[in-house]
Fold this sequence. Notes:
The protein has 24 helices and 31 strands. The protein is α/β, with parallel strands linked by helices. The strands form eleven sheets. It has a six-stranded mixed beta sheet. Strand 15 (440-443) and strand 16 (448-452) form a beta hairpin. Helix 4 (60-73) runs parallel beside helix 10 (235-248). It is globular. The relative contact order is 0.14. Residues 2-377 form the Molybdopterin oxidoreductase domain. Its main location: other.
Amino acid sequence: MANADCIVIQGSNMAECHPVGYQWVAEAKARGAKVIHVDPRFTRTSAVADRHIPIRAGSDVVLLGALINYVITNDLWFTEYVKAYTNAATLVHEDYRDAEDLGGLFSGFDPETGAYDKASWAYAEGGGGTIDEPGAGTEHGADASARAAGHTLGSGGPPLEHAQVQRDDTLQDPRTVFQIVKRHYARYTPEMVRDMCGIDIADFEYLARAVTENSGRERTTCFAYAVGWTQHTLGAQFIRAAAVLQLLLGNMGRPGGGIMALRGHASIQGSTDIPTLFNLLPGYLPMPSAGRHDTLQEYLDAIASKKQKGYWAEADAYTVSLLKAWWGDAASAENDWAYDYLPRLTGAHGTYETVMAMLDDEVEGYFLLGQNPAVGSAHGRMQRLGMSHLKWLVVRDLNLIESATWWKDGPEIASGELRTEDIETEVFFLPAATHVEKAGSFTQTQRLLQWRHQAISPPGECQSELQFFYELGQRIRQKLAGSDDERDRPLLDLTWDYPTDAHGDPDPEAVLAEINGRHLSGPDAGRELSSYTELRADGSTAAGCWIYTGVYAGGTNHAANRKPGHEQGPAAPEWGWAWPANRRILYNRASADPAGRPWSERKKYVWWDAEQGRWVGDDVPDFPLDRAPGSQPDPDLGGPAALSGDDPFIMQADGKGWLFAPKGLVDGPLPTHYEAQESPVANALYPQQQNPARLRFPRSDNLSAPSAGASGADVYPYVFTTYRLTEHHTAGGMSRWLPYLSELQPEMFCEVSPELAAERGLEPYGWATIISARSAIEAKVIVTERVKPLTVGEHTVHQIGLPYHWGVGENAVVSGDAANDLLGVTLDPNVQIQESKVASCDIRPGRRPRGAELLALVAEYQKRAGATPDTGNSTVTDPAAEGIDPGPGGEGTPGNDVRRED
Length: 902
């Protein structure tokens, strides 16, 4: 980011939420870069930016789509980059129909299941057919279940059998990706931005000029986002829209370019690399699905093809090496490397499905580790009631957080919904070590592994996660010792032999070494692996996470590298270790032109050295080192050998950056604007109001407010959005117990504009009650011009800002109502993240009622709005307008040939 000429921070309050990382933005600004903050609120980030552009929460695809349209219509796209490095010239299947043709739906939508058949999105094959993934249109992982559990295609994207696609390098054929993108965004205009985002045309033109004037051969623009983009029912498409824009501008794979995902805290990136996610294995390998991947070969055939281009074709080596790391000698060719020891997905098993399963008495026990769902997860009431159905609950934390005490002092105790004496859940609280009381690696927001050294020993019985799980594993294995039950073999055969110190604590460096991997046989047996390219599918290598291979190369803990920046080159390769292969910028082959020359001397980064016959530069080249520019190997070779000299996106199945996604996303090949699950604004672009593929949970305890155009929408006329503060940390477990931080931010509050305060009679520093279709909370009122009313269409949209750090309990220094109690559960279908950043509400002066009167207030609003489990939960808003033929019972019957007649 320090090398950027323009930085757009959108969906993040970076200066407050990532104050250390913001130093690189400040450094770029000191060098002359423009910094633009697009956010519903004027924040500390806005205060240090060149311009703050207020936006209606949830309308980001309109703004990004209009920037894409601006770039194309004004011929400002980086022509040579786009033609060579993206799929712009590729032709798409002749049956493909766009959302522009079908009223907001793409071809292949089934309104009964809420899912797409993506066959018509495929590339057109050179021979006239289509290129699809192996398995002829089937999905794998949790995508195969009736309720999609999200995109689980791994870090390489969906496989393509080969790269012999139909192309039109003139980009004139209407079926080229370029022309499809151009048509798709033609209606995303500055006027549409004004009418849908509330952004005036002058602000849009300032942003468009800043981005385009700072992109191209000599300059680069960077986008940065956080949960302001992800926590939406089309959050993955927000990010995709930025990727499309950045590819058109030639900003991917180049210094000062790209898209920076600002992760929540120290190792959130690490928790997805070596995942706590139910549908992924380490290194973004998908979890196998029951009934589809019953054998190792079925699994490998589904996740990658040996005929596709790039390094994801080697996914079999990554998988077998993982199985060898976990089960060692018990994993052999005869038993498919212990593949049957892996669990299988039977559907969606995310955190919200699990909570609903608790309510249905299908879950007996639950571990909470570094999480406080009673405060920090959407629909707090559902979280707490779900825990009341458990037989046992284990909470490991630093303090007695609300998720450990809800049974005696939670909101449902106060309302009378729960009585302590009736709750049968046995709660175990186990004290945890803090981050300074343990050693180990963490992976921060730019994929950088760093080593944390232990500063002091944890007090009393506090344990690190490593020690806790190691000892838990030891005890379970002791109890199962001697078992001849086949289901116990995966636990008994685990490689659970980490060295321990005098106190019995396992050595964290030994764990990192196992993750890195080693040779198991041959002349190098026992040697640590240096690169993921050394991994093999024959059982001769073991590695716990293929993308981390190299972090322990040569027996050295490279995560602990600490060479000062002034003693090394501009990429600082000896400070920590970045996955994969210690590359600081992914896809950096794109930093040079097709002939291998830097696009400009100013942005020189990686280039082809003809004399040496290899790629060289400031970073580890993200490309086969000896693959010369202009090389055109036979695509039938498959794998890395099939990559042409101008295929910089080496993990993609065709080596190109995808403007159009023929596979992989479950809700559309192009980002398309839909309104949030709850919105007082009608979708001006399409008859389709919400993301048709969103994951819905129509339940009486998860009601949604009616949206614009539906009866009762005026009962919840305002929008609220949640955010975090510098002074508090996530759900408050590390900050509300500290007197100094509690003094700095002592009370739950809401931010409202002077206009909204006048409209609703809210007094500065008085109390307000905020009511949603799920709950009602109280907060102190901050009347501020930081939250401005926006003119959207023909009416004013008021947005209310709510920090989410407070919870109700007796143990913290400060407590308050939880903002997340107001939220319902509706999820992005790709990644299953909740919609936390926009929902409908009412606000009125005064404190909320207590006890049963609180429930009566919420029920009274629900009744006035006519809210039922069906409210807002149809897949198709208007079948007739959206080109869906009426079917039995009024439902629609999808068809690729159906067009909207208007």
